[in-house]
Amino acid sequence: MAERECGFAPLVFRLHGGAPQVVREVLLERGWEEYDEEEQEEGDWNLYWRSSGFRNSDYENILPWQRLNHHPKMSQITRKDCLARHMRRMKIAFGTALYDFSPAAFILPNEYRKFLGVYNRNRTTDRGKSRFWICKPVDLSRGRGIFLFEDIKDLVYDSSVIVQRYISNPLLISGYKFDLRIYVCVKSFSPLVIYMHQEGLVRFATEKYTLASLDSLYSHLTNTSINKFGMCYAMDKERVGRGCKWTMSRFRSFLHKQDVNEVLLWHRISNIVTLTLLTAVPCIPSSPNCLELLGFDILIDASYKPWLLEVNHSPALSLDCPADVTVKKGLINDIIDLMNYKMIDSFRQKGYCRKRSVSRYLRPKISHGFLLPKILHAPPSGNKSWNQSVSGSSSSQDTRSNTGYATCSVHLNSKSTGHEKDPQKLYDEINDEVGSDDLKLTTFNSTRQSHRNTPSIVCKLPSLRVHKLKSPAVPWNRGTQDRVVPLCRVGDFILTFPFNEATWKASQDQADVKAITNEVHKLTNRLVSSFNEKERTKMESSQSIGSRDKFEPLLWGPKDPPLLSKCCSLNSEVK
Questions:
Q1: Looking at 423-507, which runs of residues are DSSP E strands?
Q2: Which helix (H) or strand (E) holds 520?
Q3: 69 neighbors 313 (Cβ within 8 angstroms)
Q4: CA-wise closest residue to 322 among 240, 245, 392, 270
C-alpha cells in the first residue's frame, strides 16, 4: 500500500466474508484502501466490518486507531426470545403503560401451558371471537418459518419459537400492509448513546391485506426477501407503485396529508427505540471504538399507534431497488462519519512506532523545526488522553481547523550541555501543546499543501512490512472513551439519547434505568400536554430540556428536525 504525499497513508478497511458490497463501494469512494492479509501486518487496519459478531479476543485487543461494527452480546435484543424476556421483565419493573408497544409474546415449548391458558381465556372473554397469532422461529431472519394461525390446532413447530398476538388492524396504504425499517446506531452502551437515521425504508406487502386468508404471506409479511418472489412485485400497484419499498421521505409526504399528530408519532417511535435498548444496557459490556447498526421494524396500526415487531442484527444492506440506493449509501457514509476518525488514525502502527523510535529520530543535528503527529500512547496521569474526544464526532459541517501537529526545534548547542530533555518528556510536552487532533480526513490535502514550503522536516519511519507481526499492545485509557457530550446531529443521524443532562448523567457507568425511564415518561407527558392551550405557558417555562441545558436535542422524524424544546411549546403545526 503506497503512502500518500508528506507521509500520510489512507485509512484501511477490512471486510469479512459476507459483508455488504455497498460498504466496500462507499469506502473506496471515500479514498480508503482494502486490507491485504498477505502484505499488511495483522493490526494494520482502521475498520473491521463483519455481518456476524466478533470474538471476545477482537474486543480485548482493539487498538486506538481501530473500529469494529458490532458491540458484544447484541443477541440480547436481536434474538426474538431474548427480546421477549427483556420486555416482560421491564413491564414488571416499570409497568405495562410504559412498555405497551410490544405485543404479548410466549416462548415455546417452555411456555406452552402459559400460552394455552391465555388462549383459552381470550376465547371465553371475547365470547368466542377469534384472535389471531403469529409464530416465529427465535433465531431466523428474513421471514423464514413465520406463519399465522387462529385455531391452536394449527400451531405446529419443531424448534424453539415465539408466539405473539398478531396486530390485526394495521394502517394500510391503498389496502396494502406496510412497516417501517428504522436504522439505529448505538455508539456506546456505557454511557448509552443512540442515533436514529432520518432516512429509512417503508416495506410493503405485495398483495392487499385480508384476514380471510392467513396462508397468504404476500399480504401479511413485509419482508423484501419474501415479497420479491410474489406475482405482484413488479406490478404498478395503486399508490405503492412497482416493487415493495418507499423511502422515509416519501412516507413523510403521505403522513403529512393524514389527520395525525406527527410530532407525537415520531416521538413515540423514538421512545420505542430508547426503551428497547435500555433493556439490554445491564447485559452488554462497555467496548471502546465499537458501534452497532440495528434495524428496528415498527408497525403502525389503524389508530396510529406504533408497535415494535423485532430488532435486526446486521440489517440487510443489499441494493435491490432505487429506494435502497438512496437510503443505504447515505446511511453508510454517515456511519463512517460517526466513527470519528482523526488524522492520526491513518498512521496506525507507525504512530506508535514513533514513540519507541524517538531517541533515534530526534537528533540534535536537525536544526530545523519538524512536524510530529500526536503520539498514540497513554500520557502520564493528569495529561489529556487523545481518546477523550473520540465520541465527539463531527459531521462535514463541524470540521475543526486544528491540524493535530506540533512544531518543535532542536538546537545544536544542546548536544553536549547535559541539559537536553529526555525524549519521553519531550513527547509528553508535545502532546500537551497539540491539544485536540480531532480533524476530518477531508482536510488532508489542505494540510499537505500548507506544509509543502515550510522549512520543516517530516520524520520518516522505516517500513513495518519487513515482518508480518501482530500490532504492538498500545496502552490507552479506555475508561474515557465515550465521556464527551455527543453531537446532536451527524449527517442524517439524529441524537435521540441522551436528550438532556439528567439522562446523560443517569447513563454513565452503572446506568440508572429507573431515572432514565422517568425522564422519558416526563418528556412524553410534556409533548402531550403542549398541545393543550392551557398548558402551553407552563411548558414554555420548563427547564428540563430548555435553552439552559447544554443539550440542544432535535426531534427525530420530521423532514427538518426541530429542537425538542420547541416541540414542547408548539402545537401540531410542527411537521
A1: 457-458, 489-490, 493-497
A2: helix 513-529
A3: no
A4: 245
Q: How far is CA 385 from the centre of its chain?
A: 24
Q: What does the alpha-carbon distance between residue 539 and residue 556 come to, in Å, rounded to a whole number?
A: 20
More confident residue, 312 or 509: 312
Residue 74 to residue 70: CA distance in whole angstroms: 8
Task: Report, in angstroms and rounded to the nearest whole number, the Rg of the chain calculated over CA atoms.
Answer: 27
Q: How far is CA 535 from CA 129, 344, 543, 567, in A?
A: 42, 52, 15, 13
Q: Which three cell numbers stand for residue 345?
A: 488514525
Cell numbers describing residue 24: 466496500
- For residue 165, the one-letter residue type is R
Beta strands in 190-233 (DSSP E): 192-197, 201-204
Query: Is 490 within 8 Å of 394 (Cβ atoms)?
Result: yes
Element (H, E) at 329: helix 322-338
Instruction: Report the phi/psi class of residue 297: left, alpha or beta, with left for phi > 0 and alpha for psi in -120 to 50.
Output: beta
Pairing label, strands 161-165, 105-108: antiparallel
8-state DSSP, 150: S
> Distance between CA atoms of 120 and 362, rounded to whole angstroms?
81
Cell 498477505 -> residue? 38
Task: Please give the Cα distance from 239 to 374 (Å, whole number).
Answer: 56
Amino acid letter, residue 428: D
Cell of 91: 413491564
Amino acid at 186: V
Q: How many residues does the chain have?
A: 575
Helices marked H in 392-500: 423-434, 444-451
Over residues 83-106, the pLDDT tens digits come to 999 999 999 999 899 999 999 999
CA atoms of 350 and 355, how far apart (whole Å):
9
For residue 137, the tally of other CB atoms under 10 A from its CB is: 17
Kindly give the residue spans of alpha helices, DSSP state H, lying in 61-171: 75-78, 80-94, 112-125
DSSP count for the chain of H helices, then E strands: 18, 20
pTM as predicted: 0.77
Secondary structure (DSSP) of 16-28: -TT--HHHHHHHH
Please tell me the predicted confidence (pLDDT) of residue 287.
86
pLDDT in tens, 516-564: 999 999 988 888 876 554 444 444 444 444 445 577 889 999 989 988 8
Predicted pLDDT of residue 541? 45
